[in-house]
Specification:
Length: 604
């Protein structure tokens, strides 16, 4: 009896304990869910508030200073990057359009007293840097100040910053002034080791895009062209800096030959590359003096995002005339996009047709910044431009690159404008078909085929091409090259024989291209727009940019967060290797026929 009673009490206690445990557990889970919902709701509200704040109009205080903080990547057009917070990367992506527009606004606004350049690192070509530098030179005409500061000036940012009234350098900092170099990669040894053969077909002595697969070093022809355009760009840079810094070109070359980045900072001041040494912490006080602000008062600073949201001081044009600036940047019909833009020929053709049919559009400026890509896609865009040109003037403005396919789509314009440091030309095409039989033999994989006709299995990469296929392929490349030469000859009004001499796949600087007649004028986007207005016979107009920028929400929907994070976390050589890995991955899907510059053409 006692035994049974004891167990009964024990069971009752256990049941009560379980109820309390379940009650506590359910309360905890409910609390977590409620807290999660509240936090999500608060985050969304804060997120929307942040977006709203970023798009609200900036109110400019008196004696403000625009800060051009450069630490990231420069693209033709800025785009929303909704996943940037995931990387924790301090690097940003800047739109050239936003920078140029902000500098113009700073010049027009009476409350902005000057521009402060904080130079860290900027991944960009020299033509884009030259365009920003020219905009800063125009800003100085207003009588306002420009001051630059850097812990370490890269060569490109020193060129940009040299237009400043004062160049400030950290006492323990450096100026990377050493000259230009191009360091291409070669994969022949790797492909041979793997058992992969790249079967190459090309036209053009200087068409070096295939050399990474066929050579272990630069050909003499390639070395000749690279040395020529490096020298042209270096001479232009030196000439501009010498004028701004009141130095001679000889003094600048002597400084470069002393590898200034390994010299004490005082040596940069002694040689006239910098004006004074100052710690970053003291720069604000110096800017206050220039902006006529008391030492104890705050200095109003306007970053690039603030400048974007300042309204222009120009009255709205009521003429109804539009000059369309159409941005075409990146690889043409490429399969290895990395978040840095790309030219989709089908989309471009549709857009150009709309501009052709729009009666309010009086002229089109095609802004080209492309190393080329698909020869087929380039031809389709060329035809669309030819049709557009029948209705209204088409002016090309070249950015850092407008070469090979980039030149193909430019050659038929009414006028071509390029910066002296633009890389253009590269009129030539090539084809490449991989053969991985050696690799498959190594790993013990074999293939067989059944076919109805001699060439039914053409393009299969698991065997080498036979002689008949090689002859047909080379003949196809030759016809493509002849068509390319014809398009350039007719577009530029130069005989085919003369065009053939300057073609051959050779890359030219914008300055050399102007002398050869491949380019009409030297200058930037603003000059191209002026020419477009003159050819259209209009004095008043509204500039409209196409394609329109994606909104934040469109970017959020269309973005690939994985790819964005990969590209933001990688930098320098690792980013280039990642691009090359993507190229290998997509090689079989890519158009066999390419009108493209070398994949890793990079000036450092």
């Amino acid at each position: 009896f006692i035994f049974v009673s004891t167990n009964s009490v024990s069971i009752k206690k256990t049941s009560k304990t379980m109820k309390e445990f379940l009650k506590f557990t359910l309360a905890t889970i409910t609390g977590i869910i409620v807290a999660g919902v509240l936090l999500t709701f608060i985050s969304i509200i804060a997120f929307l508030g942040m977006i709203s704040a970023s798009e609200s109009e900036t109110q400019v205080q008196k004696n403000s200073v625009m800060m051009l903080k450069l630490n990231g990547t420069l693209t033709e057009q800025s785009q929303s990057t909704p996943f940037s917070f995931l990387t924790g990367n301090s690097y940003e992506s800047y739109g050239l359009d936003d920078i140029l527009s902000s500098i113009r606004k700073a010049k027009e606004n009476e409350d902005i007293k000057g521009i402060y350049i904080e130079a860290s690192y900027l991944e960009s070509g020299f033509a884009s840097l030259e365009e920003i530098r020219n905009a800063l030179a125009d800003f100085k005409q207003s009588g306002k100040f420009i001051v630059a500061y850097g812990d370490t000036y890269t060569q490109g940012l020193y060129y940009l910053s040299s237009i400043a009234d004062k160049i400030l350098l950290n006492p323990q900092g450096m100026i990377e002034w050493q000259g230009l170099a191009s360091v291409p990669r070669f994969y022949k040894g790797l492909t041979e080791h793997l058992g992969v053969e790249m079967q190459i077909f090309k036209v053009g002595t200087y068409k070096s895009a295939v050399e990474p697969w066929t050579n272990t070093s630069m050909s003499e022809a390639n070395r000749e062209q690279v040395n020529a355009y490096l020298r042209s760009i270096w001479d232009k840079i030196n000439s501009d800096i010498a004028q701004s810094r009141h130095l001679t070109v000889a003094q600048l070359n002597e400084a470069a030959d002393n590898l200034m980045m390994l010299q004490p900072a005082e040596e940069s001041v002694k040689r006239g590359l910098a004006d004074t040494l100052v710690y970053k912490n003291d720069v604000r006080d110096y800017l206050k003096t220039l902006a006529d602000i008391d030492e104890d008062d705050n200095l109003p600073i306007l970053g690039l995002k603030d400048m974007i949201n300042i309204k222009k001081n120009m009255p709205k044009d009521k003429s109804g005339n539009i000059i369309a600036v159409y941005y075409a940047y990146g690889e043409i019909d490429g399969l290895m996009q990395t978040g840095e833009g790309g030219i989709n020929s089908e989309a471009v053709i549709k857009d150009l047709r709309r501009l052709q049919e729009d009666e309010d559009v009086k002229a089109v400026v095609l802004r080209v910044n492309s190393p080329g890509g698909s020869a087929y896609g380039s031809e389709q865009i060329w035809y669309a431009i030819s049709e557009l040109k029948k209705e209204k003037p088409v002016i090309v403005s070249m950015g850092d690159y407008a070469a090979s396919g980039g030149y193909y789509i430019s050659c038929n314009a009414d006028t071509i404008v390029a910066e002296p440091t633009t890389l253009t030309g590269s009129i030539g095409i090539y084809g490449q078909v991989p053969n991985i039989k050696g690799l498959t033999d190594k790993i013990g994989v074999t293939f067989d085929v059944a076919k109805t006709n001699s060439y039914a299995d053409f393009g299969v990469i698991t065997r080498p091409m036979n002689e008949g296929e090689k002859q047909l392929m080379q003949a196809y490349i030759n016809r493509g090259y002849d068509l390319f030469i014809t398009r350039c000859s007719e577009g530029r009004g130069i005989s085919k024989a003369d065009m053939e001499q300057m073609a051959q796949g050779r890359v030219w600087s914008g300055l050399a291209a102007k002398e050869l007649g491949l380019v009409d004028e030297l200058g930037g986007l603003d000059k191209a727009i002026e020419i477009a207005a003159a050819k259209a016979g209009i004095e008043s107009y509204t500039q409209m940019n196409y394609p329109g920028k994606n909104s934040f929400w469109e970017s959020l929907i269309n973005a690939d967060p994985g790819n964005y994070i990969r590209m933001q976390l990688l930098d320098g050589e690792m980013k280039e290797l990642y691009k090359q890995a993507n190229m290998w991955k997509q090689l079989e899907k890519q158009d066999f026929i390419q009108a493209r510059m070398p994949f890793d053409l990079k000036i450092q």
